[in-house]
Amino acid sequence: MSSPPTPATLLDDGLRALGLEDAVPAARRLRLLAYLDLLTGWNRHTNLTAVREPAAMVTRHLLDALALLPHVQRGRLADLGSGAGLPGIPLAIARPDLAVTLVDSNGKKARFLRAAVAELGLAATVAQARIETLQGPFETITARALSSLAQMLDWGGHLLAEGGIWLAQKGRYPDEELRALPPGYAAQTLPLPVPGLDAQRHLVIIRRRLPGNRSAA
């Protein structure tokens, strides 16, 4: 009986399937795996994620986050409700040119985020704050399983830079949430295939609506 693939193999195969093998070189892949080791260690005494198996973490945490890479803009990125650092930490590792701010108001999670930033040597900052009190602007905003689209924009719409984008990760197609999108925003929804994940995944890309543009893709 053959041995199950290692997390490193799963990561390599997943990046190849996403077409990102050249975008994430070997040194950054090692740092991504080091992040998983750190998360696994902290998870034993601090409830950061319900996912416990390293192989599942590669799929549901690393690859799920890295699938956003083609959509991330240059400049500043805010990861709202970052929790265990997802998707912010994998994006900061894969794109060291980004100025990433990991935002979470929970003290235990913020402590983990600070420890991860220090141990992994990331050029990222941690903001232990409510989203409403954060100061922007940011060229890219990410949020995973945070709240409804309308609620997220109510909390953090002021953070979006002119020409910036909000990348909201959702499971099933969020039809009702899109219908409830506040005035002043336009949304484009794309399937977000994650290698190895047997579940629906969608990416909602939100931009400020341009004057005179009434349509939403």
Share in helix: 25-40%
Major sheet: arrangement of strands? 3-2-1-4-5-7-6
What is the chain-wise order of helices and strands?
HHHEHEHEEHEHEE
Q: Tell me about the largest β-sheet.
A: 7 strands, mixed
**Overall pLDDT, averaged?**
92
How would you characterize the overall build of this protein?
The chain is α/β, with parallel strands linked by helices and 217 residues long. It has a domain at 64-208: 3-Layer(aba) Sandwich (Rossmann fold). 35% of the residues lie in helices and 21% in strands. The protein contains seven helices and seven strands, in the order H-H-H-E-H-E-H-E-E-H-E-H-E-E. It has helices spanning 7-18, 26-43, 54-66, 88-94, 107-120, 149-156, 175-179, and strands at residues 76-80, 99-103, 124-127, 138-144, 160-170, 185-191, 202-208. The protein has a seven-stranded mixed β-sheet with strand order 3-2-1-4-5-7-6, sandwiched between helices. Helix 6 (149-156) links the parallel strand 4 and strand 5 (160-170). Helix 2 (26-43) packs antiparallel against helix 4 (88-94) and helix 3 crosses helix 4 (88-94). The longest helix has 18 residues, at 26-43. It is globular. The termini are far apart.
What is the strand and helix layout of this fold?
Blueprint: H1 7-18, H2 26-43, H3 54-66, E1 76-80, H4 88-94, E2 99-103, H5 107-120, E3 124-127, E4 138-144, H6 149-156, E5 160-170, H7 175-179, E6 185-191, E7 202-208
Parallel strand pairs: 1-2, 1-4, 2-3, 4-5
Antiparallel strand pairs: 5-7, 6-7
Keywords, separated by commas or semicolons:
7 strands, 217 residues, Rossmann fold, alpha/beta, seven-stranded mixed β-sheet
